[in-house]
C-alpha cells in the first residue's frame, strides 16, 4: 500500500542529521518526523490539520455484568459528545481539532440528532460469551464504513476514539485471539471494577474465548468478539493509511482495532503512531505484542480519543521540525567536527 524507497529513507535521514542540533538530540521526535516524511513521501511533510472521529457501539456481552456502568451510558455519553461536554470535546477544542461522532451500532432506537453521523449496523452486537458478536456481513459493512469515513476526512492526521459500555471486554477478546497474549494479561478493570467484579469479568471472558479456536484471523476475531465501533476503527485505519494520513492510535480499545487492521494488511503500519500507554491492564501487553512504543505514558484510561488528541501536538511539532528547522549550512552554524 505504501512505498518506502531506500532513496527516500536516505534523504530523510540526511535532512534530519543536517539540522542545527547534535545528532539524535531530539530523540523520539526525530523518529516520528522520519515516519511522517516517509508516509507522505517527502522531506518537507505537511501536518496542518487533525480530526477526531468517535465511534459509538454497544455490546451484547454487557448483559453478562462485565462493566461497572449500565449500557444506557453509551447513548448518554454520545449526547454528551454532541453537546460538547466530554473530555474529548474539551481537549479537541483546546487544540482546534474538529470532532465527529458516529453511531456505529448503539442499542435502542435510532438516535435522531443533526450532529450525529449515522452508520448504524445494528442495535448493538450479540452476546459474544455465547455466540458470534456479529455476522461476517455486518463486520464487512463496519469495516467499509470506517474506511470511507477516514478517506473522506479532511486532515493530515486522524485521531480515532470510541464509546461503548463493555468494549474493554470486546477489545480483550479480539486482542487475545489475534496476538495469542493470555487473557490473564489483557483483562482489566475497565470502567472501575472492584476485585470481585474483575474476577467475574475474567471468568466470562474465559468462557467466551473457549467458544472458538485459540487464534483467529482478523475478520473472524472481529466478527466473533468485536464491536461495531472496533471494526469501524480498524476500517478507518486502513482507509487513512491508504490516503497516506497519519493515524494517532489512542488506548486499549483503539489498540485492539489497530491489531485487527495490521492483521488485515500489515502495510498499514507506517501510518500508525501509538499515542500513549493506557493504565488499562491489557494495553501494555498489547503494545508489547505489537512491538509498539507509545509517545506518552500519563496514566490515562478514558478512551474517547483523549490520549490521541494529547499526542497531536507532538506529531505536528515533529513534522515542523524536519520541514522548517534550519540546516547547519543554511544557518551558517559550524557542524560537528
TrEMBL record:
EC numbers listed for it are 2.4.2.21
Pfam families recorded for this chain?
A: DBI_PRT
The active site consists of 304 (proton acceptor)
Q: Which reaction does it catalyse?
A: 5,6-dimethylbenzimidazole + nicotinate beta-D-ribonucleotide = alpha-ribazole 5'-phosphate + nicotinate + H(+)
Instruction: Give one GO molecular function term.
Output: nicotinate-nucleotide-dimethylbenzimidazole phosphoribosyltransferase activity
Which InterPro entries does the record associate with it?
Answer: Nict_dMeBzImd_PRibTrfase, Nict_dMeBzImd_PRibTrfase_bact, Nict_dMeBzImd_PRibTrfase_N, Nict_dMeBzImd_PRibTrfase_sf
Q: Provide one Gene Ontology biological process annotation.
A: cobalamin biosynthetic process
Keyword entries, A-Z = Cobalamin biosynthesis, Glycosyltransferase, Transferase
Pathway connected to this protein: Nucleoside biosynthesis; alpha-ribazole biosynthesis; alpha-ribazole from 5,6-dimethylbenzimidazole: step 1/2
Where, by residue number, does the polypeptide cross the bilayer?
none
PANTHER family per record: NICOTINATE-NUCLEOTIDE--DIMETHYLBENZIMIDAZOLE PHOSPHORIBOSYLTRANSFERASE
Tell me which family the UniProt entry assigns to this protein.
Belongs to the CobT family.
Biological function: Catalyzes the synthesis of alpha-ribazole-5'-phosphate from nicotinate mononucleotide (NAMN) and 5,6-dimethylbenzimidazole (DMB).
Listed name of the protein: Nicotinate-nucleotide--dimethylbenzimidazole phosphoribosyltransferase
Q: Which organism is it from?
A: Sphingomonas changnyeongensis
The beginning of the lineage is: Bacteria, Pseudomonadati, Pseudomonadota, Alphaproteobacteria, Sphingomonadales
Which gene holds the coding sequence for this protein? cobT
Amino acid at each position: 500500500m505504501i512505498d518506502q524507497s531506500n532513496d527516500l529513507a536516505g534523504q530523510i535521514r540526511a535532512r534530519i542529521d543536517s539540522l542545527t542540533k547534535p545528532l539524535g538530540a531530539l530523540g523520539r521526535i526525530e523518529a516520528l518526523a522520519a515516519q511522517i516524511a516517509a508516509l507522505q513521501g517527502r522531506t518537507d511533510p505537511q501536518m496542518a490539520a487533525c480530526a477526531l472521529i468517535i465511534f459509538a457501539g454497544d455490546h451484547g456481552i454487557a448483559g453478562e455484568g462485565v462493566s461497572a456502568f449500565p449500557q444506557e451510558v453509551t447513548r448518554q455519553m454520545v449526547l454528551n459528545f454532541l453537546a460538547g461536554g466530554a473530555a474529548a470535546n474539551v481537549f479537541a477544542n483546546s487544540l482546534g481539532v474538529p470532532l465527529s461522532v458516529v453511531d456505529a451500532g448503539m442499542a435502542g432506537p435510532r438516535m435522531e440528532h443533526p450532529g450525529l453521523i449515522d452508520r448504524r449496523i445494528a442495535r448493538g452486537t450479540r452476546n459474544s460469551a455465547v455466540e458470534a458478536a456479529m455476522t461476517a456481513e455486518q463486520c464487512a459493512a463496519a469495516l467499509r464504513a470506517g474506511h470511507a469515513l477516514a478517506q473522506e476526512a479532511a486532515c493530515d492526521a486522524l485521531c480515532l476514539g470510541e464509546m461503548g459500555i463493555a468494549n474493554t471486554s470486546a477489545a480483550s477478546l479480539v486482542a487475545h485471539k489475534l496476538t495469542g497474549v493470555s487473557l490473564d494479561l489483557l483483562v482489566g478493570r475497565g470502567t472501575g471494577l472492584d476485585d470481585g467484579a474483575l474476577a467475574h469479568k475474567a471468568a466470562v471472558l474465559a468462557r467466551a474465548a473457549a467458544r472458538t479456536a485459540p487464534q483467529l484471523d482478523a475478520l473472524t476475531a472481529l466478527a466473533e468478539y468485536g464491536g461495531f465501533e472496533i471494526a469501524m476503527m480498524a476500517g478507518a485505519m486502513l482507509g487513512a493509511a491508504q490516503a497516506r494520513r497519519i493515524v494517532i492510535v489512542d488506548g486499549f480499545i483503539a489498540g485492539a482495532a489497530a491489531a485487527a487492521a495490521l492483521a488485515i494488511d500489515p502495510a498499514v503500519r507506517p501510518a500508525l503512531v501509538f499515542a500513549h500507554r493506557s493504565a488499562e491492564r491489557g494495553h501494555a501487553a498489547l503494545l508489547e505484542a505489537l512491538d509498539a512504543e507509545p509517545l506518552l505514558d500519563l496514566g490515562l484510561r478514558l478512551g474517547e480519543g483523549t490520549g490521541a488528541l494529547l499526542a497531536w501536538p507532538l506529531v505536528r511539532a515533529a513534522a515542523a521540525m524536519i520541514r522548517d528547522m534550519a540546516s547547519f549550512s543554511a544557518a551558517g552554524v559550524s557542524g560537528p567536527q
